[in-house]
Amino acid sequence: MLVIVAIGPIAAIACGGDAGGPGAQTAGAASVRGGASASAMGSASASGSALPAATAIATAAPGTSANASPATQWIGALPSRPVTAKIGDMVWAAVPTDTELRIGIYRVVRVTGTTAALQDVLRVQWEKVPGALILPIGDPTRLRNDMLVTYADWRGYVGVGMIVKIAPKVRVTFRDASSVVREETVNVAEPLVGSVAPLQWVGFPKPSDPSTLHKGLVFLIDGDNVFVRDDSNRAWVVERAKVTPLKLPAKRLKLGDTVRAYAPDRGYREGVIAKIFLPGLSYGVTADDETRTYFFSDLALAQ
Predict the structure, then answer these.
(1) Mean pLDDT of 196-207
(2) I want to staple 101 with a disulfide (CB 3.0 to 4.6 A). Which of 124, 235, 277, 300 is the partner?
(3) Contact 51, 8 (CB under 8 A)
(4) Which helix (H) or strand (E) is 211 found in, with range?
(5) How far apart, in whole angstroms, are the C-alpha atoms of residue 178 and residue 47?
């Protein structure tokens, strides 16, 4: 793995983030994997002169060669679609490397036919991102308090959150990677509508474990093929008939309510609310004769 140290401050400001947020003025590091080349940049290119200078250049994994990583085989099923975004636009994008899929908010630096160069929040510039993996950002006027959303924050994290404030900036409550419940400003939020659509959360079976329903984030639909990223940042192509929309709990649950609880090691299991830790947010759920703590985003209601 090649590690490239960011030369300047993290570009939360460039991506519409909170300039005063924690870490917004500190230097960061970006791990670049799967690129055909990566080099430090001292100045912005002519095509991206309006943007802060890129700290590194990387190429999205092609995934079509005979020696492609197993983690990128799905790329061969991508449809060819033009890039409709313009230079300078902020977009959602799913950027593949040779080991994972990075979904987040990017700025368009350059457009070349069916691919684009995108710059992420760490100012790493990703070349040759397929147009099929680039999505527009939705209208923020749709957002409301207490709405469930797929959010992207100034760190580049993407997950499920609940809006607690929409003005002057959108703030959501969520559970971070350390299982701590937090409330922070986010750059972008897309409403959850409980359907199989891009940026919506679904249950799906993996080929290696067809009897278990796993949680995933849809990033592309092409006919009967649904492209899903799992909780390990691995991408899968799944038949539409095998994908289930997840109905996440938008209201406070009560003791004794029946839910489906998700854990990466065992998928979704039917359970019952046995404890309430933070009303509306954190619960103790008994499933398979064992009680575990779950955040609301790891729970689903019966369809």
Answers:
(1) 96
(2) 235
(3) no
(4) strand 209-222
(5) 39
Q: ∠ CA(216), CA(219), CA(223), 5° rounding?
A: 105
Closest CA relative to residue 203, chosen from 261, 257, 151:
261
Q: What is the pTM of this model?
A: 0.82
- In angstroms, the first-to-last Cα distance of the chain is 43
Q: Which of 266, 263, 264, 262 is nearest to 211 (CA)?
A: 266
| Residue 123 tokens, joined | 């100012």
pLDDT tens column, 97-125? 999 999 999 999 999 999 999 999 889 99
Locate tokens 């008994």: which residue?
Answer: 286
Range from 5-19, 24-38, 244-258 carrying the lowest mean pLDDT: 5-19
Name 118's bridge partners. Answer: 108, 126
Neighbours of 213 (CB within 10 A): 22
In terms of Cα–Cα distance, which of 109, 94, 107 is closest to 12?
107
Instruction: Return the bridge partners of 117, or none.
Output: 110
Pairwise CA distance, residues 39 & 62, whole Å: 19
Contacts of 248 (CB under 8 A, 6+ apart): 148, 160, 192, 194, 201, 296, 297, 299, 300, 301
C-alpha span between 122 and 217 (Å, rounded): 22
The separation between CA 238 and the C-alpha centre of its own chain, rounded to angstroms, equals 18
pLDDT tens for 149-197 read 999 988 888 999 999 999 999 999 998 877 888 899 998 999 999 899 9
